[in-house]
Amino acid sequence: MSIHLHPDKGLNPRMTSCRNCGKDIGLVLLGIYEYKRICNNCGTINYGISSNSPCGKCGHRDFSSPIKIEDHEKIPCELCDECGKRLDDAEKAVREGGVHWRCKKCKSEGAVKHSEYAMEIRKATQDREKDDKNYTEPDSEGKWLPCGIEWENCPVCRKTK
C-alpha cells in the first residue's frame, strides 16, 4: 500500500489516542487525507478517508461535509492496554452473571460483577424484554446472556467530584 504525500505536510503524521481515555498511543500517516467526515447513517467520525470511501463502521457512503483535521488534533483509534484489559475484565464479569454499564454523562464503561444488585438489573431487563431471552439464569453451558444499563453519575464521575 502506498501513501499519497500531502503537498506541504508530506506523510502528514498525526498522533493517535485511546478512544476511551485519550492516552497517546502512536502515529498514523494520513498523507493527502486531512479531513474527517461524519457518517450520516450511523454518526461515526471517519478520519483521513477519501470522499468515495465507505464508513468504517456501517459501510455507507453518505457523509457530512468534510471537516479539516486540526494540526494538533489527536485521532482516536484502538484502546490502550489499560482500557483493553478493563474491557476484557468487564466482558468476563458479564459472562459470569454481571452486567455491563455505560455512563451517559462521561461515556465511561464497565461492569457490575455478579451480585444481588446485578441480579436485580437482570430481572428488570427480563421484565422489559417480554421475549424468550433469559437474563436471570445461565444457559446449559453456564454462560449468561449479555445485559446492561446506562446511567448518569457513574463511579468514574463520582471519583472526579
Task: Give a topology summary.
Layout: E1 13-18, E2 24-29, E3 35-38, E4 45-47, E5 67-68, E6 75-77, H1 81-95, E7 99-103, E8 109-112, H2 116-129, E9 148-151, H3 155-160
Parallel strand pairs: 1-6, 7-9
Antiparallel strand pairs: 1-2, 3-4, 3-5, 7-8
Write up what this structure looks like.
This protein is α/β, with parallel strands linked by helices and 161 residues long. The protein has two domains: 13-77, no CATH class; 81-160, no CATH class. Helices cover 22% and strands 23% of the residues. The protein is built from three helices and nine strands; from the N terminus they run E-E-E-E-E-E-H-E-E-H-E-H. The protein has helices at residues 81-95, 116-129, 155-160; strands at residues 13-18, 24-29, 35-38, 45-47, 67-68, 75-77, 99-103, 109-112, 148-151. A three-stranded mixed sheet has the order 2-1-6, with no helix packed on it. It has a three-stranded antiparallel sheet with strand order 4-3-5, with no helix packed on it. The model has no long low-confidence stretch (mean pLDDT 88).
Q: Notable features of this structure?
A:
2 domains, about 160 residues, alpha/beta, 3 helices, 3-stranded antiparallel beta sheet, elongated
